[in-house]
Structure formats: structure tokens, C-alpha cells
What we know:
- By secondary structure, the protein is an alpha+beta fold.
- It has helices at about 1-5, 10-30, 95-105; strands at about 35-40, 40-50, 50-60, 65-70, 75-80, 85-90.
- Strands 1-2-3 form a three-stranded antiparallel sheet. It has a three-stranded antiparallel sheet with strand order 4-5-6, with no helix packed on it.
Amino acid sequence: MRRFIMPQEARDLHSFMTYIFVGAICLFICGYTRRVYVNEEGLVRETSIWGRKRREILITWDKVERIIYSEQRNAFMARFEHGFKGYKISVDLKNKDSLCKFVEYYYK
């Protein structure tokens, strides 16, 4: 294990990078996707590998303390905060109004 973390020779570094490259290709092929979105329940994270989906509600609407909006270049970001935790989502600028209306309807 030590030789993979701190390679002694160029050959060890090459074999380590080969494992990293093969692992990245395997993740790409297996279809790993991760989405974070808002719906009527709150902020939801959905992870999918080979068609199997796992859905987790990060924050429900009644637990959201505040929402901070920001605009950066070609993306609009909303940060949902609960205590010391916060989760960000970003959407295109063209979807900014629909996100604001949706959040305004369900928040408070």
C-alpha cells in the first residue's frame, strides 16, 4: 500500500496512474449520475448507478432557515441553509424565474 501512496520509481507512479485511469473509466461506463433538485418535499439528492436509484431528502421545507441567491456568469445559485449546514444548487440563468417562483411557493 505504501508504494502506491509514495512511489519510489517512475514505474510505480505509472502503475498507480494506470489504476486511477481504469477506475475512472469504469465509473464512466457504469453510468454513475448524481442529481440535486428541489421538489414539493424539499431539497433532494438522487444517486444512480446502473439504473438503481437512491433518493435522499437533504432538507425538508419546514427545516430550511434561509435561502441565499447569487448569480455567477452563466449560472444562478441558491443556497439552502439549516443551522451550520448548507446545500447549493445551480441552474441556468434562463430558469432563474421558475426556480424563484417554485421556492417562494413552498418556502414558508
